[in-house]
Amino acid sequence: MKKILFYSVLTFLSSAAYAGNLSVKIENQVIIAKACNLKQGTKNVWFFVGQKGYAKNGIGKTQEKFENNCAIKTYNNSSNDLFLKGGEVFAAYDMNGKEPIQLSPETVSIPNAGTPSTPSVPPEDKTLKISYKSDSGKVQVLICASPEYMTLGKNVAINNITKQKSTGQYTGSSSLSKKMIGDQRCAEHIYDAKDISNGDTLTIVVGSENKEVKVSGLSQSNPPVVVNPPEDPRKEIESAKVKNYATQAANFFANRVVDIYGKVENYKYNFYLGFRKAAALYTNLGLSVQNLPQYSSGKQLGLTQGYQQGFNSGKAKGESDGIYFGQKAAAARFRSAVGNSNSLDVTPGDAPNGNDFEGLTPSLSNPDIRTSISNYNNDFYNELRSGYSFDTEVDFDSDLNGRLYGASIDISDFYNWNNYKNEVLLSYWKSENAFSLFLSKRLIKSSSVDYNKVKANNELVAKYKEITDPTLYKDAEQNKQIYKSAFVNQYDNVIDDKWNNEVYGKTNNSAQIRGEFYFTQAIQSYAQTVGYNEGYVQKYTKASKDGYSKVVGTAYLNKFDQTVNYYTNNAVFEDLQMELVNQEGKKFFAIIDSVIPVVKNIVNLGKVSGKLTVSISSTSGVLNSAANTTLEMEVPSLSQLKNSQPFGTISQISSQAIADGNYQVTMATSAGNQTLPIEVSWFQTIRQVTKDSAQRQQILVKYLSNTLGKEMTDMKSVFKKNKYKSEPQNTFAGKFVTSFTALPPQEKQILNQFQASIVAGMGKRPTNLICIGCGKDEWDSAQSLFKQIGWSLTK
């Protein structure tokens, strides 16, 4: 059996205008090619070497050097073909670095330098190397062109192989995969082991030469067992049949949609026609409804109820205003007599009569015909579902129920529509969604009494599932696409005609009568509301003025007398203003300072004196609740107290309060509650140490020490920054140093006596060798702060 392997030779043509002469000689087995007398501007000379007649098809290489206006290129004389069969050199010229254009090529034969040493391998093996590898019933034939072969000008490209049996019968061609192995250009072809054996001949065509190679060394001691792959048992189906199945299903489902949804829409469409027919009788809505008896009856009811409710509303308003004005007028008489009781005048004067009262406006919503229609919406859909119940035929869920009966459309929408066909959307029942509904078998309940439809639906869905099952059909995925496309196209083609015939082509007189009935009911209800509102408004405002005038004067006089009587026999406190100070009268407090309420202003409008009582309602955690008490202050009749009238001590600042915190406390007084601010000062606490008794000094010093110690402990946390270093002004330690600096010398001397006790809370310097969160850096920073005032932390 002979195998023929064809090699195509890619030619590389480089040429230029001839600009000199070419010569070749051999010295010490080295070929020296020289191109001289070059034209000025020549950048490169390209040399090609190969067997006679083929040099120009070889691989071009530029000169190695220029010498005496000559370009020189050398080759090692290592190719037998150049000597045994003769060789040649071809030169082409490149001007100004541009690609050459062949005008007159120059070719010179290589002189014979004698017989070279005998090659150790046959000539074929020197240029083409063949290897075989058997594996798993396959044979790899690898053909490589050696570097020497390519040097001689054979730019080898391996394209394909044509297989022939020994009889010469053609069996087809196949592609060869190409690769580079080292510096060799190779191609491989994989044969079945049964198609190649030792002794077969491979004919390799390179350029115009044929190389014949006998296959040898191929191991066939364990010939592979040929196992034919098992035949795929899955079926295939013609696309025409798939389309036919889909067409049948689309027609069936379109009929089912029309049978179910179409009946509902036919009723609604004819209902709409009757509805619009009745509405056409009332094109001028405002004038039309006034001719209805419901308008007249509504107006009469509105007149009656409007007057009664207007009168009552006006009466309530007059009562309220009379009380307000009477109390206000009486209080004004007593206020004008404060500080001058003899000027008190308690005569009521002229009572209001209501003549300046313009009346009340009723709060009524404007009637809307659409609202009147919408009030019947639930009745309509309940009637529709009752008349067209498909519970025995359709597998409903909430979504399908809503889609089928179209409950998202309010019948009040019909009033604005001009064309039912253009307004109703069928998207839910068209195309791809219809395909999904078909597969879910929702429109054919398995328990339906119509056995034939159930059977047909089951068979159509079952056939789809069969031909799209990849375990049964090779082309299952393709069948899915074909089926769905054909279904959608057919469904869209037929649904419109079926829909128009069923929905818009059939008259339903009972539905039209119901449409007329519902609109008539709605327009009568609307007319009733319009008439009622007009009658109600007509009476309401005037009636409210009557009711107001009837009571406002009496209410005024009664309240005036009540107020005078109360003010005459009671203390009446108003305009109370208070603040809190410490034992020194300052608004900034130190720990354990006394808290003293001060009355900045109070007025007694009563004709008798009274006691203003004060107690603490809420401490907010800043006051010592155990020290709370109730204080009293006598306020004379018809008088005003001001200019800071102090009570006694009511409480103390708690030793648990946080310094530099702003608090609020609530004071309960006989003149109403007072919420007052209170500020606990760190500076004031520091300074108070220099002023208080020894017993209180110990409490204050302990507070300072504990506060500094807690701050140090909190700052030692790994996740908190060292504020003693980065922002000392925001630390108690930093503020202590600042406060100390601002004190007079004698107060500093007193504080110096307590130095050790005050800084004791901050502890000694940590001695840990490994210190992560131990506080060594923080302690050092705090030490630096206190050194500024000559103090030192405990060491």
Keywords summarizing the entry:
disordered N terminus; 5-stranded mixed β-sheet; about 800 residues; Immunoglobulin-like; single chain; flat; alpha+beta; 21 helices
Outline the structure in words.
- The chain has 795 residues and is an alpha+beta fold.
- Residues 1-19, 98-104, 113-126, 149-176 and 221-227 have low confidence and may be disordered.
- Helix content is 40%, strand content 22%.
List the helices and strands and how they pair.
Layout lengths: L1 E8 L11 E7 L2 E7 L5 E10 L9 E2 L2 E3 L2 E7 L3 H5 L2 E9 L10 E5 L12 H5 E8 L2 E8 L1 H5 L4 E9 L5 E6 L1 E5 L2 E9 L8 E6 L2 E6 L24 H41 L5 H5 L3 H44 L32 H6 L2 H11 L10 H8 L14 H4 L7 H10 L10 H17 L8 H29 L4 H61 L3 E9 L6 E2 L4 E11 L5 E9 L12 E5 L3 E8 L4 E2 L8 E9 L4 E7 L1 H7 L5 H22 L7 H4 L5 H11 L2 H8 L2 H5 L16 H12 L8
Parallel strand pairs: 1-16, 19-26
Antiparallel strand pairs: 1-12, 2-3, 3-7, 4-5, 4-8, 6-7, 8-9, 10-11, 11-15, 12-13, 14-15, 16-17, 18-20, 20-23, 20-24, 21-22, 21-25, 25-26
Helix pairs in contact: 4-12, 4-13, 4-14, 6-14, 11-13, 15-18
Short description:
The protein is built from 21 helices and 26 strands.
